[in-house]
């Protein structure tokens, strides 16, 4: 368990009470998941939400790692026989990794430096004399250190300065003050590497670039770092050198002497000290703190980028599902044809074939007859068309076929479909089919249930991130996995139809238990009630507690088995029904009956009003999918390529990606256009996500088309008169 100091720091960080943190940490230590704690343990945590609980978990891990590092540092210093009570107390009081490393720096094993060489020559006492800055004749004092190894007073003083510079560099107080100056006042400057002007043209905006570190947005900082890593940019992140050196002088040097009678000697001592300070800053402190500052800012930028990715991923996973419908799905193509599959209500593959409605074959009539026949034969209720190559052309072709009035045509994002089709998961699902068939199936299933299908794909391959290849990959995976887990448990999972990949993300399960559930279904048939989960191999009471509330059984005998009400609260709900002299089913069906429940009378030591309110909300809509229904989107009928775009056109579009600097919108020309944050709305917004969501249907105005660079600039600030006219 974390110390009280750490608990207090976490509580302050989240602006909550310490008891909320302590209880949350206890639940996490007992194996509870973030979704479970957020949904079913509100009384214990004071109703902390998933974001807060995840942050408690993250900060706890940071402090646990800090404690582990403290133990390593203490052990290392003990082995040098240099650990004092004061030093131990300073280490114990540390609350940040940077502070701990500053303390440890003088004791850290180091390579042979200029200072160690000077020490080997016996110059450490001279360094002590200079550092006191009160000797009347430091040059005369230096003559005492001239030996065969030290040939002159200048060499002796230079060696003393090397020792002093290293001491200053290892001074925790100096480093902390300078660190704060770097973070507060450093400037990010970039320039093109000599001879790379043409090769690095995509970074030309940064060839002569300068911006305050505290103001530079994360996406721009990551862009600069990428330019450096690719060898096109040279960057520096430092404050004003004179101000920084002055700060170090202020912390280490005495003021210049005033009295004439002692001034000359003392001045030489102070002069030597200031020379050492200048060297310490330029040779040791500045490079070290520049690297540290880059890493610190990179962590912040990574966190921002991961948050953007996570927000987009959440919106994508919670995109409106079509539901259990019979779907004909098409993976469009020109030369190789369009791969067509027919799926049943559960996404099972019924039929597949290839049609060739586009050049070079141009078998449009044959393709139309085939599609029409498939729609009739398999009672197709919707058509899903991938939005990749030939997507617009295929959509246009399909809409020329006369279908029953109820049949709707949807364009579906293909991002990541090729990754899925070549994956081990796809091979396991469809061992007898090639990648083209698997890709089409994925497109169709995405329309039916985006969440269930997208969990099979590495989130990084879905294409809704910002600089995702530049950020810390471990943290990115952790952040995205948490989003997937949150979305799956927020929606709930049909226990009898969910794939093992979807079940893997259910609270308390994981890959092994998910496989055991699938195996149990194959052997014993569908689950009839939640308690049957206890018969699944290796699914113990703890796992049952964590997962049961998130698993749904639509046709179960017990009506609450198809709700988010946890089995541990069934007796409570049944008591409510009994008190009203109703059956449980009648209670669920009667809004009037539920309105007569006096919630305070059911408050107990374990159950408070937060849980009771959740139960009442769920009783009003048991089993209802929280996601909105799917909507058909249509591009402008006469716009297919970037050559069709003209300035001032107003077009329908769909938001495909949201970043900190703007949003990308698909207008149907195979190249997304950018709506800069300044062009999203007339009101001020600090982030595009304040005004837009992924896959939102919008109207955009074409501001600029750069065909050579394939860049489209768009605006959403469109006068009503232009919207009406278009």
Short description:
The protein has about 725 residues and is α/β, with parallel strands linked by helices.
- Principal-axis shape: globular
Under CATH, the homologous superfamily of the domain at 114-313 reads: Tex N-terminal region-like
CATH class category label of the domain at 114-313: Mainly Alpha
In CATH, the topology of the domain at 114-313 is named Tex N-terminal region-like
Percent of residues in β-strands:
5-15%
Radius of gyration: 33 Å
Report low-confidence residues grouped into runs of 5 or more. 259-263
Number of helices: 30
Given helix and strand content, the structural type is: alpha/beta
Distance linking N and C termini: 63 Å
> Level of helix content?
40-55%
Spatial order of the strands in the main sheet?
6-5-4-7-8
Question: Would you write up a description of this structure?
Answer:
There is one protein chain. With 726 residues, this protein is an alpha/beta fold. It contains 30 helices and 15 strands. The strands form 4 sheets. It has a 5-stranded mixed β-sheet with strand order 6-5-4-7-8, with helices on both faces. The longest helix is centred in the middle third of the chain and has 58 residues, at 260-317. The two termini are 63 Å apart.
Secondary-structure map with pairings?
Blueprint: H1 4-14, H2 18-29, H3 34-40, H4 42-45, H5 50-79, H6 85-93, H7 97-104, H8 114-120, H9 124-132, H10 138-143, H11 153-169, H12 172-185, E1 187-192, E2 208-212, H13 218-229, E3 233-238, H14 241-252, H15 260-317, E4 327-331, E5 338-343, E6 349-355, H16 364-377, E7 382-386, H17 391-398, E8 408-412, H18 417-421, H19 424-429, H20 435-448, H21 450-454, H22 473-491, E9 493-494, H23 500-503, H24 511-524, H25 541-547, E10 551-552, H26 570-579, H27 584-589, H28 591-595, H29 609-620, E11 650-658, E12 662-666, E13 673-676, E14 697-706, E15 711-715, H30 720-725
Parallel strand pairs: 4-7, 7-8, 9-10, 13-15
Antiparallel strand pairs: 1-2, 1-3, 4-5, 5-6, 11-12, 11-14, 12-13, 14-15
């Amino acid at each position: 368990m974390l110390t009280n100091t750490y608990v207090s720091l976490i509580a302050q960080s989240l602006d909550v009470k310490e008891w909320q943190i302590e209880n949350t940490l206890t639940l996490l230590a007992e194996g509870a998941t973030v979704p479970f704690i957020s949904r079913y343990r509100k009384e214990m945590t004071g109703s902390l939400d998933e974001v807060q609980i995840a942050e408690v978990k993250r900060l706890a891990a940071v402090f646990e790692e800090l404690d582990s590092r403290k133990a390593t540092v203490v052990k290392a210093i003990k082995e040098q026989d240099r650990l004092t009570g004061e030093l131990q107390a300073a280490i114990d009081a540390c609350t940040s990794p940077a502070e701990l490393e500053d303390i440890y720096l003088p004791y850290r094993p180091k390579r042979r430096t200029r200072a160690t060489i000077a020490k080997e020559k016996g110059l450490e006492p001279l360094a002590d004399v200079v550092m006191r800055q009160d000797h009347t004749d430091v040059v005369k004092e230096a003559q005492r250190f001239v030996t065969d190894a030290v040939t002159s007073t200048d060499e002796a003083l230079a060696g003393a300065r090397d020792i002093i510079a290293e001491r200053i560099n290892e001074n925790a107080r100096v480093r902390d003050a300078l660190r704060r100056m770097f973070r507060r006042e450093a400037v990010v400057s970039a320039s093109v590497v000599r001879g790379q002007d043409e090769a690095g043209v995509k970074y030309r905006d940064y060839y002569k670039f300068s911006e305050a570190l505290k103001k530079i947005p994360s996406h721009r900082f990551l862009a600069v770092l990428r330019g450096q890593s690719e060898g096109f940019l040279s960057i520096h992140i430092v404050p004003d050198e004179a101000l920084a050196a002055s700060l170090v002088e202020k912390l280490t040097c005495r003021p210049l002497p005033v009295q004439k009678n002692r001034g000359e000697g003392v001045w030489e001592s102070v002069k030597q000290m200031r020379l050492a300070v200048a060297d310490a800053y330029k040779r040791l402190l500045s490079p070290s703190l520049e690297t540290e500052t880059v890493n610190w800012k990179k962590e912040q930028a990574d966190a921002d980028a991961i948050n953007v990715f996570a927000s987009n991923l959440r919106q994508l996973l919670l995109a409106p599902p079509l539901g259990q419908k019979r779907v004909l799905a098409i993976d469009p193509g020109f030369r190789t044809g369009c791969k067509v599959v027919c799926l049943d209500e559960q996404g099972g593959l019924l039929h597949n074939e290839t049609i060739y409605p586009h050049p070079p074959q141009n078998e449009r009539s044959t393709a139309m007859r085939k599609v029409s026949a498939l729609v009739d034969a398999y009672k197709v209720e919707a058509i899903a068309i991938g939005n990749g190559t030939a997507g617009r052309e295929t959509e246009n072709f399909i809409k020329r076929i006369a279908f029953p009035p109820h049949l709707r045509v949807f364009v579906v994002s293909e991002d990541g479909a090729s990754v899925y089709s070549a994956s081990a998961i796809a091979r396991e699902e469809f061992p007898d089919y090639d990648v083209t068939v698997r890709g089409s199936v994925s497109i169709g299933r995405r329309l039916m249930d985006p969440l269930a299908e997208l969990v099979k794909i590495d989130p990084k391959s879905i294409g809704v991130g910002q600089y995702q290849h530049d950020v810390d990959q471990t943290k990115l995976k952790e952040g995205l996995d948490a989003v997937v887990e949150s979305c799956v448990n927020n929606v709930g999972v049909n226990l009898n139809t969910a794939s093992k990949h979807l079940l893997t993300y259910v609270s308390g399960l994981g890959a092994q238990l998910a496989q055991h559930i699938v195996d149990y279904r194959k052997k014993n048939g569908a689950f009839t009630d939640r308690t049957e989960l206890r018969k699944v191999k290796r699914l113990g009471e703890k796992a049952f507690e964590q997962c049961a509330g998130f698993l749904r059984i639509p046709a179960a005998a017990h009506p609450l088995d198809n709700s988010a009400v946890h089995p541990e609260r069934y007796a409570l709900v049944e008591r409510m029904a009994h008190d009203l002299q109703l059956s449980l089913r009648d209670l669920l069906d009667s809004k009037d009956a539920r309105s007569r429940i006096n919630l305070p009378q059911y408050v107990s030591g374990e159950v408070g009003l937060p849980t009771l309110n959740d139960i009442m909300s769920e009783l009003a809509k048991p089993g209802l999918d929280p996601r909105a229904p799917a909507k058909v989107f249509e591009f402008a009928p006469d716009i297919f390529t970037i050559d069709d775009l003209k300035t001032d056109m107003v077009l329908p579009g769909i938001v495909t990606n949201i970043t900190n600097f703007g949003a990308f919108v698909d207008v149907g020309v195979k190249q997304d256009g950018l709506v800069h944050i300044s062009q999203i709305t007339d009101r001020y917004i600090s982030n595009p996500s304040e005004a837009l969501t992924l896959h939102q249907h919008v109207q955009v105005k074409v501001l600029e088309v750069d065909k050579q660079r394939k860049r489209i600039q768009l605006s959403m600030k469109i006068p009503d008169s232009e919207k009406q006219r278009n």
